[in-house]
Amino acid sequence: MTGSDHSVVIEAAREYAGVRTRELSVAGTGPTVVLLHGYCDSSDTWRGVLNRLAAAGRRAIAVDLPGFGLADPRRPGALTPQFDAFADAIIGAHGPVVLVGNSLGAATAVHAAARDRTGRVRAVVTLDEPLLARHLPARLVRYGEYRRLFDIAARLPVPDRLVHSVVRLGVDKLIYGPGYAADPEFVATAVRSIPTMAAAAERGRDAIRYAREHPAGHGDLTVSCPVLVVHGGKDRIIPVRASRELHALLPGSELVVLPRAGHCPQLDEPENVTRLVLDILARAGGHREHAG
Q1: How far apart are CA 171 and CA 189, in angstroms?
Q2: Which of 200, 245, 264, 273 is most exposed, with minimal Cβ within 10 Å?
Q3: Dist CA 68 CA 236 (whole Å)
């Protein structure tokens, strides 16, 4: 990501479902491409894709999900209904749309498409779907008890600079694929997301809460619009098998594995991600103007 990546992106405050948030947008035609980031991420993760969509003349937005980036904090209670209401409000405001989500955003996007009865969701692209992961870390998250551990961790006198160092290392080793250099500007946004040990404990606690809201993964799922399931072949957080299972769960969907990409293909390979989005846009009627 370079300074030029910011030149065509407009940043503005918006409100969806009562949540004030930041929206990054680029002008263009066709259904609005709505980009939903993953857990503990922000709309900044999509800047490379936004620029490339702008160059292709496609309208697109990326938003900070509730509790992340510059969005309002999440409210007490279950997390999934808050993400669902937020996504539904975006679809209502910008439809017709093509939903593109990474990790948490992927789960949110596919569930929004399953709820859609208006035809406003024209297509879905999921990147590194998380809820069907069944490897050991996923099983431990769902069935262990960690509340006391996080309460203790939040009170540990860990210097902020050490937290920042661990976040930088985590982004480099877990978010990006092997051989891809972490962008300093993106790393800075990750540090802002987890500035203290208390913030790290809160993020961990809510990640487990979200996983436990989906003990059976997606459950029964029917999506009528085209679905493209994408996964980074070098994802060190969620195995490719999770996306293979989502592909099997959704008859008619397509599966693409990007062999070198990590957990956030939009960071590693924004050109390839944009190409896939443009392809599904064309097949979903992306030549048509926004209906208002």
Answers
A1: 11
A2: 245
A3: 22
Is a pLDDT exceeding 80 seen at residue 290?
no
Cα separation, 222 vs 121, in Å, equals 13
pLDDT digit string (tens) for 100-124?
999 999 999 999 999 999 999 999 9
Residues with Cβ < 8 Å from 251, sequence gap 6 or more? none
* Residue ranges per structural domain of the chain: 3-133+218-283
Q: Where do we find the tokens 């030549």?
A: 287
Residue range 207-214: mean pLDDT, rounded: 90
Place of tokens 């406003």: 120
Altogether, the residues listed in the chain come to a count of 292
3-133+218-283 fold:
Rossmann fold (3.40.50)
Percent of the chain with pLDDT over 70: 94
In the block, tokens 């697109």 appear at: 60
Q: What's the pTM?
A: 0.92
**Measured in whole angstroms, how far is the alpha carbon of residue 67 from the centre of its chain?**
13
Burial of 172: CB neighbours in 10 Å, binned 0-12, 13-18, 19+: middle
| pLDDT (0 to 100) of residue 144 | 67
Q: Provide the edge-to-edge strand list for the sheet that holds 97-102.
A: 10-16, 19-26, 58-63, 29-36, 97-102, 121-127, 227-232, 254-258
